[in-house]
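fold-stage: in
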Amino acid sequence: MAVESDLQIAGDILSVQHLLQPAGEHPATVAEFVGLARSIAANRAEWEHLVEYDATTRWYHRLRTGPGYEVWLLSWVPGQGSGRHDHGASSGVLTVLEGELTEHGPRGPLTLRAGAQRVFAPGYAHEVVNDALEGAVSLHVYFPGLTAMPMHGCSPAVSGAVPA
């Protein structure tokens, strides 16, 4: 049985605005990684021209790497999902840039609209799906960089380190 982290039990760090900090040159705290994601999200010129939609598979692009982290840009056509997975030893910040995604986590479904952010600890299992009728774009910051993405409820052949 998975044990929830204090972060998951406490709720959403993003609702406590005074804890958020702008990202430094080399982000090192959860708050700084949240700040990094917000600054990238605000700079549409950095990512908007890169987005592609692929109806056959989820599209993703590594946007940036730094000491101990990486940033991924993903697009989701209606109906695409990640499958239930965790991120191995990585923590992360998921930010919805455009559209709407649904996160299915331990506490049930949560609708994430443009601007929404989710912070998760290592081992946190969820599924992300585009249940909407329009495409969606999301930004994912992993720290340390993503090396595994174990799938839950799938055959081992489906496991891989594809960001979600």
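fold-stage: in (second)
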Amino acid sequence: MSDKAEAGVLTALQAALAAEHAAVYGYGVVGGRIGAQRQAEARSAYDAHRARRDALVREVRDLGGRPVAASAAYALPFAVTDSATAVRLAAELEERVADVYSDLVRASSGERRGSAAGALREAAVRAVRWSGESVAFPGLAERAAATAGAGVAGGSASPSASATP
């Protein structure tokens, strides 16, 4: 792998790591407001994001990078005051995570690409379960642009863009 390609992979890994940090934080909020009937689903998603986060930390280190740290807190895209808004936040978290994993799929190859595609698929499935809606190709730039145009911050490949879960 060329130095330029490796740098692109590292950038995409860092963005995915930042998104996972934000998702872990966001699911902490979701868990505090979600109704009892969906607690197990929220806990499962929280655990999945923690596991992905930990794996990404190892991957970044393996490439010689310094893993981006989690923020102490994140600005939520809207107030989460009840179970309905918690469900909405969970769906948005998953859509944002899918967006950054699509960038990692694009930047990587081999086993890493397969792992990123799996993470993208898992986030997309969780997003559908939370929102009840799906898109043909989750994580595509066109979808992120449409979301950003609607006034809601979309996913991004830059680690700093994940400051809002």
